[in-house]
Amino acid sequence: MKTYLKTITLLAFIFALSSCGGNKQEPTQERAETPSDLMAEAPIYDATKIDPNALIQTVQLKAVGNTMADIHYDDTMLVVKAGTTIKLSLENLSTDPTMLHNFTLVEEGTAEKVAMEGVKAGPDKDYIPAMREVLVATKMLKPKESVEITFPAPAAGMYDFICTYPGHAVRMRGKFRVEGGV
Ligand code: CU
């Protein structure tokens, strides 16, 4: 009887050891396949993380036009260098009091999605939705107002910028290219 129990205990021990060893690889494999883990591995852009030693690049942008048919930015291809700090100024040159504009920098290809979510965010949020696709944005400017924002250049690559005021992103949009290597 004692021997029998010993054997059972030994077998259970071996089983525990082998199953423990067998499970060792699994967490790693599962992590790589879980989308949330993949997202966690991607660097998240932080607009407030400014390197005090970085070179400063100024970007001046103007919003113009007084009807839904002629509103636009005066520049639709902004180019900056990676690793720099961007000082971007936006001036609203529209004169019609209903023409409110902002500058919202978004991940490439997400302009429509962000604009749609911006409408839902509403005027209290300046039509700027809180979502990962939005890197940085200015406040909504009334005609003749201007603003300057400072943010670190995102990783090298292509981005889009839009005005998130309802209906404006159709015409108020441009490309924001970050060139690698400074
Ligand atoms: Cu606008």
Helix count, DSSP H or I runs of 4 or more residues: 4
Task: Give me the Rg, rounded.
Answer: 26 Å
| CATH architecture level-2 label | Sandwich
Strands side by side in the biggest sheet: 3-9-8-5-6
Overall strand count? 9
Fraction of residues in helix: 25-40%
- How much of the polypeptide forms β-strand, as a percent range? 25-35%
CA-to-CA gap between the ends?
77 Å
Sheet/helix structural class: alpha+beta
> What's the SSE pattern?
HHHEEEEEHEEEE
What does this molecule look like?
There is one protein chain. The protein has a 5-stranded mixed sheet. Strands 2-1-4-7 form a 4-stranded mixed sheet, with no helix packed on it. It has 4 helices and 9 strands, in the order H-H-H-E-E-E-E-E-H-E-E-E-E. The protein has 182 residues and is of the alpha+beta class. The chain is globular, with a radius of gyration of 26 Å. Mean pLDDT is 85; it is low at 7-40. Copper (II) ion (CU) binds at residues 63, 71, 101, 163, 165, 168, 172.
List the SSEs and their pairings.
Elements: H1 2-23, H2 26-33, H3 35-41, E1 56-64, E2 72-73, E3 77-81, E4 85-92, E5 104-107, H4 111-121, E6 134-137, E7 146-152, E8 157-162, E9 173-179
Parallel strand pairs: 1-4, 3-9
Antiparallel strand pairs: 1-2, 4-7, 5-6, 5-8, 8-9
The protein binds copper (II) ion.
The site of copper (II) ion (CU) has 7 residues, from loops.
In short:
This protein is an alpha+beta fold.
